[in-house]
From TrEMBL:
Keywords: Glycosyltransferase, Transferase. This is Glycosyltransferase. Signal peptide: none annotated. InterPro entries: Glyco_trans_2-like, Nucleotide-diphossugar_trans. The keyword Glycosyltransferase applies. CDD domains: Glyco_tranf_GTA_type.
């Protein structure tokens, strides 16, 4: 019988040779050893493919898949297709996790949750990316409702540990060819989950890369993909029967859209991304409605007023 590890850790690898070793060391040195590490070389042009093969030769728990460059979504999906563990973690190849992560997650594995919720911290800024709501095991849609009532909810897939069979049963994969794939994947996963539980474990460390280069073309695709994801999720949320959950999710999309606009990542690309009707029709909370009305009157005025308020608070 083929051994099935408790955890499959999926790491898409692309152009990170200065960061990969720290990432992999944080995985192979886990205090709980019943894991597999799947390194998906996404056609990396640097020394990463050879590094991955070296790790696999030294540790039988490390498996390497080499594929042509296809993007983060496809690399994660490839990892999922090769995973055998009961639960799946996604780790970006320039980040690290605590050495006791898997050990501390074990008690939650025993509860057979579809999704285990964790927290992360951004190295350098020390900003903690956490969840504002602590719950026992609840349905995913209920968790979304409660979390959004408390504020916002991080969508990064790396903060969640997924039961592998749950992902398979619900055909949950990452949409290829887009940036911000987590913005679609995470809410879909939660809406499908029968049992989610918050661990309270801050295990994930985001590393800010000094050599990261973002071009104007990257910025435009970044904005366009997030905008398209917001509109696609709007169609999904409008089909929900739970009116309170529907309202909170739609309101959260308006907030996300306005944040994208305020950051200057939409208005510079013209009228195609100025969607007053979307903002007016989906704002629900009084604060969001006020912002929507101001935006509908004049998007530039909204930007200046919001910027003035932020400066006053600084």
């Amino acid at each position: 019988m083929i051994h099935k590890p408790v955890f499959s850790i999926i790491v898409p690898v692309y152009n990170v040779e200065n960061y990969l070793n720290a990432c992999v060391q944080s995985l192979i040195n886990q205090t709980f050893s019943d894991i597999e590490i799947i390194l998906v070389d996404d056609g990396s042009p640097d020394n990463c493919p050879a590094m991955c093969d070296t790790y696999a030769a030294a540790d039988s728990r490390v498996h390497v898949v080499h594929q042509p460059n296809s993007g983060l979504s496809v690399a994660r999906n490839t990892g999922l297709a090769h995973a055998a563990g009961s639960y799946v973690l996604f780790v970006d190849s320039d980040d690290i996790i605590n050495l006791d992560t898997c050990q501390r997650l074990l008690p939650f594995v025993d509860k057979s949750a579809d999704i285990i919720i964790g927290d992360g911290i951004s190295v350098g800024s020390r900003k903690k990316l956490s969840h504002g709501y602590t719950a026992a095991c609840v349905r995913g849609d209920m968790y979304l409702k409660l979390a959004l009532h408390e504020g916002s909810m991080p969508m990064a897939a790396v903060l969640y540990i997924y039961r592998r069979e749950f992902l398979q049963e619900n055909r949950l994969v990452f949409k290829p060819g887009i940036l911000h794939e987590d913005e679609q994947f995470t809410p879909r996963a939660f809406l499908s989950a029968e049992r989610v539980i918050e661990s309270g474990i801050c295990f994930y460390h985001y590393i800010t890369r000094d050599d990261s280069i973002t071009t104007q073309q990257d910025l435009r695709k970044n904005a366009a993909d997030l905008y398209d994801s917001i509109l696609e999720l709007t169609d999904l949320y409008k089909q929900l029967a739970d009116q309170k959950l529907k309202n909170r999710l739609l309101d959260s999309l308006v907030t996300k859209y306005l944040s994208l606009f305020q950051a200057g990542r939409l208005q510079q690309y013209g009228k195609a991304y100025i969607h007053k009707r979307f903002v007016l029709c989906n704002a629900r909370r009084p604060k969001t409605v006020c912002k929507a009305l101001l935006f509908a009157i004049s998007p530039p005025l909204y930007w200046h007023v919001n910027n003035w308020v932020k400066q006053r608070r600084a």
